[in-house]
Structure formats: C-alpha cells, structure tokens
UniProtKB/TrEMBL annotation:
InterPro entries recorded: 6-hairpin_glycosidase_sf (IPR008928), 6hp_glycosidase-like_sf (IPR012341), Glycoside_hydrolase_63 (IPR004888), MGH1-like_GH (IPR054491)
Protein name per Swiss-Prot or TrEMBL: Mannosylglycerate hydrolase MGH1-like glycoside hydrolase domain-containing protein
Mannosylglycerate hydrolase MGH1-like glycoside hydrolase domain mapped to chain residues: 46-441
Transmembrane segments: none
Organism taxonomic ancestry: Bacteria, Bacillati, Actinomycetota, Actinomycetes, Kitasatosporales
Length: 467
C-alpha cells in the first residue's frame, strides 16, 4: 500500500464551535449507551458490560457526572470473583442469550467458577482484561475529591482493586519472572492481533458448525476475526471453563500462555495509581510502589527488544519472544520510571516505519505497518484504536514529548468526530470501521477535549471585518 502524504487537517475540533459540537455528540453517545448501572460499549455488537471498556468510559464520564463514573467502576467490581479476578464481561440478564456469543450459558460462571469464588447473583465470563481500573478510579477521584470522599468511593473500591492486583501477581505469574500471563487472546484486549497467531497454532479449533457468531450480525466479516480464529477462541475458553477456571501450574500447562507488554504496562501504571489510592484511604502505599517498580524491571528484563526498539510478547510455552510487532509493545510508554533510553527508543519506533506516527499516519495502528499480516480494516490487525492512542498520548506527555502528544490528541479528536465515534479507524484514511457510537471513543474524546487548550480564534480577514 502506498502511504498518502500526511497533512494536518483543521477539523471541527480545532474551533470553539466544533469542540462544543463534538462534546455534545460524545455526551449523547454515553447517555444513549448508559443502562442505569453501567455503560455498554454499543447496544448491538456489545450489549453487556466489558471490563476495560468501563474503565475507559469512567475516565470520560468524570467530565459529565462524577457520580455516574463512580457507579461504572462500582458495578463492574461488584461482580469480582472470590479469588480477586475482575471478569472481562458482566452479563445483563435482560439481554437475550442469542444477542452475544459466547453467552452466559457458555461460560457458566456461577457453577464452573464456584471453586474460584464466582458470584452467584450475576453471570460473568471467566477470563479477564487489562488492569486499567485503578488508574481510572484515581482519575475519577481527582475530578472531584470532595464528592469522592463524601461518598467513600475510594475506601469502597480500594480493597477490590488490591485483591484484583494480588490475583494477577500471585495467580498469573506463570512464567515465574514477575509478569502476569494472559491465557486467552481476549484477555489482553487486542483480540485478533497477529501477535497471537503463533501461539494459537497449538490450539485445535472447534468446528465452526458448533457455534453461532452474533458479531457478524452487526459487522462486516472482512472486519472481524475469521471462523478459524473463533474456533480457537472457543476451544481455549471451553477448556479453561471445564478446568474450573483454574490458573495453577506453569505456563506450559496452558495451550495459550503469553506475557503481554500492554497488559503488564497497565498493571504497573495502575499499581502507581493504587499507591496514591492507598495513601488517600490511610493504607500503606509502599507495597504498591514496590510492585510497580518490580513490574517495570520485569518488563524490561523479559520483554524489551533493544534491537527493534519495542517490547514484544513472550510465548511461555516456547519461552521465546514473539516475532510480530504489535502496538501493545509501545504501551509501556505509560509507565512512570521507565528507563530514559527505553523511552527514547520507543518514541523513535512509534515514529519509524513500523508505526509511522506523525509521518505516514496520524494515529498509531494496532500492528506493524510493514508486517506480513497488516490489514488496515480487520479487527486489531492494523486499524487504529482510540483507547490505545489515548494511552500513547498520555505516555508521550508524561515523558515530556509535548508536541507529539498534542499532535496525537488532535488526530484522535479529528478521527473521533469524523468517524461518528467509530470503534476503530483505518490508520491511513481515517475511515470508520467496526461499530459506530462506541462508548470508549466518545468517553476518551471527552477526556482529550477537557485537557486540550482552547482554540485560538483567528483574526478576521479584511473581507470578514467589513462584512
């Protein structure tokens, strides 16, 4: 594919009127997707509550209603299992079983997960998603500390978040090197990334005739994972369920076990946030700071590839780094205290031929632009996602790359408004892909708008001045 010449558009987000319109449109999306207790990613394709979606939604909702942002996280963590895991889906009983697959009757959490402490009053999935929740909780608290303290928001959430982090540190360190492993491609959130192709080759897929994919009712097949991919996803989830959702044993005991840099970077960043929460509620912050530092050291030791300047996934079955370059390898930019030489290399990689950020594309793609499996439209195999770019914008700004962060913020706002708050976009053209009116796209647009300086009104031209 020939990359277009990159220009800096002056879209609606670059004028006061445009920003106001974008804010109102984002607000409408979040109001429409609110169920009364939480926010669905979208009513058609994703009609339940998703774990890391709710964290990103809460970050945006804090600019509309701190109370509702708190409720988002409280509802999610109320479905926490006894072993500490926060499930990746909390199912809404009012939604018909056929509206989403795998549905509650597939996961059977209250029975298959009973030994792991799955709740009995609500059905959930049995797998997890990246731990961005403590960071979200701290940002929600900061939006209105007085209201947060009045409601006891952080004292209520802190034990749940601490148990969630203990689960990851104790139950999921399958490689023994201090990082949390993921046991399913859905767990790192980047479901269909080419980074999983190699480890998935070991998984025998179930026949496509044994399940019905509800996602194809709402999206083009060319944008979605293939039936072969889904057959492997179903096999892994069913095997995990049939083992009672047990995590024990080394990584080699699981058909799919990977240390993902994005997941562990969010774990480290959220440990830093949890340290602040601990100090706020009168608990000891030190253990969280030490765990954050240990996670950062383990990230660099186990997953950093200095030759290519990116973090890679580690396949625990093969005990080897995965050769594919995914955008999860840039997310450690979010981690405070990352070594300066690693930060500089990551910024070079983000702007280089693998991701082209600020050169051939305005938002980072989800996979290597030069990779053999790159597809600008297929789910997590190339499109640009708003949550990932929000994380990168925050990381760039944290490490002092203000101009790059400003450019990425502007690009994300332009793409959010121009795509109708799409789930993801073609990284070259900005064309909307996936579903529209997607909650985290709207929520993170609100957050970026809140942090952006007000546009400067241009002086009128002579013609305008005399009109």
């Amino acid at each position: 594919m020939t990359a277009p010449v990159l220009t800096r558009p002056h879209g609606p987000a670059h004028t006061p009127q445009g920003r106001t319109a974008l804010r109102r449109a984002a607000r409408r999306v979040l109001l429409h997707n609110w169920t009364g207790t939480s926010t669905v990613p979208s009513h058609g394709l994703y009609p339940h509550q998703w774990s890391w979606d709710s964290a990103f939604v809460a970050i945006g909702l804090r600019h509309l209603s701190v109370r509702r942002a708190q409720r988002e996280l409280e509802t999610l963590t109320a479905a926490q299992w006894g072993d500490g895991r926060v499930p990746h889906i909390v199912f809404n009983r009012a939604v018909p079983l056929g509206a989403y697959f795998p549905s509650p009757d597939f996961w059977r959490s209250s029975t298959a997960g009973a030994a792991a402490g799955a709740p009995q009053e609500v059905e959930t999935s049995g797998i997890v998603q990246p731990p961005v929740h403590a960071l979200a909780a701290w940002l929600v608290h900061e939006a209105d500390p007085a209201a947060s303290r009045r409601r006891g928001f952080l004292p209520r959430l802190y034990p749940r978040l601490a148990a969630w982090h203990r689960y990851l540190a104790d139950r999921r360190d399958l490689g023994g090197g201090g990082l949390a492993a993921v046991l399913h491609p859905w767990e790192p959130g980047m479901d269909n990334s080419p980074c999983w192709d190699g480890p998935l080759q070991r998984v025998e897929p179930v026949p496509a005739s044994t399940f019905r994919r509800a996602d194809l009712d709402h999206g083009a097949a060319s944008d979605r994972p293939t039936d072969l991919d889904y057959g492997r996803y179903v096999r892994l989830a069913a095997d995990y369920r049939d083992r009672g959702y047990r995590d024990g044993g080394p990584g080699g005991a699981h058909a799919f076990a990977v240390e993902d840099p994005g997941t562990n970077a969010l774990f480290a960043a959220s440990e830093h946030a949890l340290a602040r929460i601990a100090a706020e509620v009168g608990a000891a912050p030190g253990p969280h700071v030490r765990r954050a530092e240990a996670l950062t050291d383990a990230l660099v030791t186990r997953l950093w590839d200095a030759q290519t300047g990116v973090f890679r996934c580690r396949d625990l079955r093969a005990d080897a780094l995965v050769p594919e370059i995914g955008v999860g390898g840039l997310i450690p930019l979010l981690v405070p205290g990352l070594p300066a030489d690693v930060v500089r290399a990551l910024v070079r990689t983000a702007a280089g031929p693998h991701f082209g950020l600020g050169d051939t594309v305005r938002m980072a793609p989800s996979y290597d632009l030069a990779g053999h499996a790159f597809d600008p439209g297929r789910y997590w195999r190339g499109p640009a996602w708003f949550n990932v770019n929000w994380l990168l914008e925050r990381g760039l700004r944290q490490h002092g790359y203000t101009d790059r962060a400003d450019a990425l913020r502007d690009a994300a706002l332009d793409a959010a408004g121009g795509s109708g708050f799409a789930e993801y976009v073609d990284p070259y053209s900005g064309e909307a892909r996936g579903t529209r009116d997607f909650s985290w796209t709207a929520a993170l647009a609100l957050d970026l708008l809140a942090a952006a300086p007000a546009p400067v009104l241009a002086a009128p031209t002579p013609e305008e001045d005399t009109a």
